[in-house]
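Researcher: Go.
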Amino acid sequence: MPFNATGILQSLIQPISEQGIGVFVLCTFDGEHILVPEKEWDRAARLLEEAGHRFVS
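Model: Structure:
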């Protein structure tokens, strides 16, 4: 992602945190990592997909 790109991390955190799920973010040079409690993972993934994000493996 370019350094002048803004709002990317917010677009990932907002759908999760607005529903009361705690989020821990780890930012590195290579990318951002979002950690959520394991018991909330399925719900967090669904919220992200509903917000337009997709997962690839």
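Model: Residues 19 and 47 are 9 Å apart (CA to CA).
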